[in-house]
Amino acid sequence: MNTTISGIGMTSQRTRDRLVRQLEEAGIRNRRVLDVIRHTPRHLFVDEAMASRAYENTALPIGYGQTISQPYVVARMTEALLEGGPRRKVLEVGTGSGYQAAVLAPLVERVYSVERIQGLQRRAREVLSTLRIRNVSLKHSDGGWGWPEQAPFDAIMLTAAPREIPEALLQQLGEGGVLVAPVGDEGGSQKLIRITRTANGFEQEVLESVSFVPMLPGTIT
Ligand code: SAH
């Protein structure tokens, strides 16, 4: 591996190990999730000017008014999604930088990720290709419609917050599948929820309070 990917100084393995220790202290228990975060070069998913801060446990700007989520939140949502069963096909709404998709990729069979801002989607595609991550499919579209051609999914993750979970997404969840999402108004109170589809309907749990950019309708080219 070259130093672009392996990192030096503030992007080195030692810096990444420190982040993983912080996540463990914050309560992340899933070893596989922690290992993937340890090995995923988050500094490649942020602007070069931000690279030295890539292994701080904070959200960072990625352009277009969007942010790469805080590593703790990425870890928590990934852990919540994996609990309770193997997840083969996973849909992500809000590709953004592509970091969350890169974290999911080694943990599931295939990731389908949709993004409404084309510029972000293009950049994510480049980074994922640099990292030779091949089981992530990207699409430029309004994630409120899901990805019907690929449904049903074993799990769906939203990384932007709607006021209410769009009905189309619930319908694309297979039985036994889970949907993990922040719900609520920007700047107001948002909750991270997990919805499980059972034979009888949908069950909802509230996991914790979070702060996400809003899920918006339509696409931007
Ligand atoms: N998972 C991303 C987080 C990016 S922030 C990462 O790891 O970097 C949330 C992203 O959701 C933004 O890029 C935003 O443009 C996108 N988004 C918001 N509403 C959307 C919608 N309706 N469909 C698809 N993407 C959406």
TrEMBL record:
Stored HAMAP family: PIMT (MF_00090)
Family: Belongs to the methyltransferase superfamily. L-isoaspartyl/D-aspartyl protein methyltransferase family.
This protein's name: Protein-L-isoaspartate O-methyltransferase
InterPro entries found in the cross-reference section: PCMT, SAM-dependent_MTases_sf
An example Gene Ontology biological process: methylation
Protein origin, superkingdom: Bacteria
Keywords, alphabetical: Cytoplasm, Methyltransferase, S-adenosyl-L-methionine, Transferase
SUPFAM superfamilies referenced in this protein's UniProt entry, alphabetically: S-adenosyl-L-methionine-dependent methyltransferases (SSF53335)
The species this protein was found in: Thioalkalivibrio sulfidiphilus (strain HL-EbGR7)
Top class in the EC scheme: transferase
Catalytic site: 69
GO molecular function: protein-L-isoaspartate (D-aspartate) O-methyltransferase activity
Subcellular location: Cytoplasm
Main location: cytoplasm
Cellular component per GO, a single term: cytoplasm
This protein's record includes keyword Transferase: yes
PANTHER family in the record: PROTEIN-L-ISOASPARTATE O-METHYLTRANSFERASE, PROTEIN-L-ISOASPARTATE(D-ASPARTATE) O-METHYLTRANSFERASE
Function: Catalyzes the methyl esterification of L-isoaspartyl residues in peptides and proteins that result from spontaneous decomposition of normal L-aspartyl and L-asparaginyl residues. It plays a role in the repair and/or degradation of damaged proteins.
Cross-referenced NCBIfam families: pimt (TIGR00080), PRK00312.1 (NF001453)
Gene: pcm
Annotated EC: 2.1.1.77
Catalyzed reactions: [protein]-L-isoaspartate + S-adenosyl-L-methionine = [protein]-L-isoaspartate alpha-methyl ester + S-adenosyl-L-homocysteine
